[in-house]
Amino acid sequence: MGAIWICPDKDRGLKHIFAQIDGAPRVVFYAQKEEFSVAEARELIAAAYVSSDKEKFLIASAIGYNANAQNALLKLLEEPPRNITVYLLAAKKSTFLATVRSRLPLYVIDAPRAPSERLIDFANLDLQAIYEFVKVSGRLERDRAKRLVEEAFDYFTAIKPVKPRLRKRTLDAIDRGFKMLGLNSGAINAILPILLLLLECKESAKTSA
């Protein structure tokens, strides 16, 4: 059988694949190309049909895969010889034809996120902190804004107790914030209502304690 591996970082993707097969099997074909061509496809197929009693891995890593090369692999991917596993690695799922994707399971290896500066110290949330956020919110990228909403939700779940009506309002605001960011709304419109409600939750929890 085999698999398609998707990873935006080629070196990390290859490292992950080799970690998966470390030990028993051996790699008998390995191509790392800008463009996986028909010639590479023929080499891979030829390597696959060299009989062996041991499990063998054939690995191809490329930025692009020629359409004719992919078509040439279809029979091998559908009915691989015994003990043969084929791994195809690329940065994007769209690199592969639908006919190739239908024959192999597809796994995504996400690139690690770089540590990001914490824009809000939720433990010390107050009006001043919210004001400071408002000043920088216009420069906030959408992905970072979404992570901030996720951080807000994590903080909210730790606040106890929260009155049922206030809890519902806050959860609704968080859900609305995610949806607004998905529609490319500005971070300030999506996140400010959440921060104000979190501050209200925090103050309410203090009085209820």
What descriptive keywords fit this protein?
209 residues, alpha/beta, Rossmann fold, 5 strands, elongated
Description:
- The chain is of the alpha/beta class and 209 residues long.
- The protein folds into two domains: 2-108, P-loop containing nucleotide triphosphate hydrolases (Rossmann fold), CATH 3.40.50; 122-208, no CATH class.
- It contains eight helices and five strands.
- The chain has a five-stranded parallel β-sheet with strand order 2-3-4-1-5, sandwiched between helices.
- α6 runs antiparallel to α7 and α7 runs antiparallel to α8.
- The longest helix is centred in the last third of the chain and has 22 residues, at 187-208.
Give a nutshell description of this structure:
The chain is an alpha/beta fold and 209 residues long. The chain is built from 8 helices and 5 strands; from the N terminus they run E-H-E-H-E-H-E-H-E-H-H-H-H.
